[in-house]
């Protein structure tokens, strides 16, 4: 079978210099559809603002993710049209996403007489432009800082810079699952981190809570995450992944620093889950509307002792299940009056976000936590990860080799 050939848009973007790909796309859309304005807005690290891409400082003001037309397209992951009858235009806001990872919004203002929606073929072409741009932005970030700079509503600390560069993304999706995670304070995170990787039949997920602050915490987390990746990419099982990461951290710090970590392997065809709780963040499950913690046998954190042997536990996820992985920075958050964030408040937050898609849940839960903690400096960073499990259909199972 012949491979599908790249479209003219894809070819143009691939041949452009990394920092020029949006300029090239803007020119193409202006020529094809007589667009009056074309803007690219990328979501900031806190996922509260959509930041215009341009040469700093000559950019337009950001717009909020909440209560804005571009934010509506970003949240729903569907095009959203806004008519301006006085100007005889229609602005189409389109999500810019790659494999479930939400990057931002492409906004295109077109002539729109009489309030008509854009023709179906025009809308489809703009969708393809947004999808092509999303893939090229991810690739271009290896060679230009333009898009990374555009995402910053304020300056990152050096530790936060190291942590964000370590992450795989903030959301991803496949037919079997949808996954999203967020860290706060986004511009000054310490040692919390997450990672994931999927193959044909397995999804690996890790959630880590490193001790310490600033650069020390970031260096510790970088060592542990890369040790886990090294072991996973060598084809080792979950126990050996934990063992080798444990030895890497212990060998460097001799027990003076260590890392609490959850390690998961989800078997996509069956929903069987293998898990190692290395003194980790906690896990909650929402099943048929019931919110409950999953009790696990806590083992030693990575790097606390030499030659720790890890033993996996097992459970099963069912279609419709939601899992939430939550770090100590959430449970231990104090109000200005010194009151801890209660388990009751956490359960209420989990319940109130049950209708949101997984990529939106972590940000909303952390915003509710901020309402409890107040606007002062955080004593610890906080991590929330949400996984919605859909499972593999009977047809999918039959097609397995």
UniProtKB/TrEMBL annotation:
<dbReference type="InterPro" id="IPR001932">
    <property type="entry name" value="PPM-type_phosphatase-like_dom"/>
</dbReference>
<dbReference type="InterPro" id="IPR036457">
    <property type="entry name" value="PPM-type-like_dom_sf"/>
</dbReference>
<keyword id="KW-0378">Hydrolase</keyword>
<feature type="domain" description="PPM-type phosphatase">
    <location>
        <begin position="176"/>
        <end position="389"/>
    </location>
</feature>
<dbReference type="InterPro" id="IPR052016">
    <property type="entry name" value="Bact_Sigma-Reg"/>
</dbReference>
<dbReference type="GO" id="GO:0016791">
    <property type="term" value="F:phosphatase activity"/>
</dbReference>
<protein>
    <recommendedName>
        <fullName>PPM-type phosphatase domain-containing protein</fullName>
    </recommendedName>
</protein>
<dbReference type="Pfam" id="PF07228">
    <property type="entry name" value="SpoIIE"/>
</dbReference>
């Amino acid at each position: 079978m012949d491979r599908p050939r790249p479209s003219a848009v894809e070819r143009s973007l691939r041949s452009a210099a990394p920092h020029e790909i949006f300029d090239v796309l803007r020119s193409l859309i202006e020529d094809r559809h007589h667009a009056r304005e074309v803007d690219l807005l990328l979501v900031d690290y806190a996922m509260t603002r959509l930041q215009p891409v341009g040469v700093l400082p000559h950019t337009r003001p950001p717009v909020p993710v909440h209560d804005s037309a571009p934010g509506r397209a970003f949240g729903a992951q569907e095009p959203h049209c806004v008519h301006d009858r006085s100007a005889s235009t229609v602005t189409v806001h389109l999500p810019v996403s790659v494999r479930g990872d939400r990057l931002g919004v492409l906004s295109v203002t077109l002539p729109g007489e009489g309030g008509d929606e854009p023709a179906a073929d025009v809308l489809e072409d703009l969708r393809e432009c947004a999808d092509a741009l999303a893939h090229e932005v991810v690739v271009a970030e290896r060679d230009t800082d333009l898009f990374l700079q555009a995402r910053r509503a304020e300056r990152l600390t050096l530790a936060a810079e190291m942590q964000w560069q370590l992450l795989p993304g903030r959301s991803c999706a496949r037919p079997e699952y949808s996954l999203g995670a967020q860290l706060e304070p986004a511009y000054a995170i310490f040692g919390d981190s997450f990672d994931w990787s999927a193959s044909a039949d397995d999804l690996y997920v890790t959630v880590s809570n490193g001790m310490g602050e600033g650069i020390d915490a970031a260096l510790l987390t970088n060592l542990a995450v890369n040790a886990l990746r090294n072991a996973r990419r060598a084809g080792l099982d979950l126990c050996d992944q934990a063992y080798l990461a444990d030895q890497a951290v212990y060998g460097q710090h001799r027990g003076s620093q260590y890392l609490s970590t959850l390690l998961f392997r989800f078997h996509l065809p069956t929903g069987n889950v293998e898990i190692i709780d290395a003194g980790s963040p906690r896990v909650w499950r929402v099943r048929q509307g019931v919110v409950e913690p999953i009790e696990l046998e806590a083992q030693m954190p990575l790097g606390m002792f030499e030659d720790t042997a890890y033993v996996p536990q097992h459970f099963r996820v069912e279609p419709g299940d939601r899992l939430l992985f939550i770090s100590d920075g959430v449970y231990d958050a104090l109000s200005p009056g010194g009151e801890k964030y209660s388990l009751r408040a956490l359960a209420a937050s989990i319940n109130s976000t049950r209708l949101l898609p997984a990529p939106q849940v972590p940000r909303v839960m952390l915003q509710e936590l901020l309402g409890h903690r107040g606007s002062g400096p955080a004593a610890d960073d906080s991590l929330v990860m949400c996984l919605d499990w859909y499972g593999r259909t009977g047809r999918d199972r039959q097609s397995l080799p």
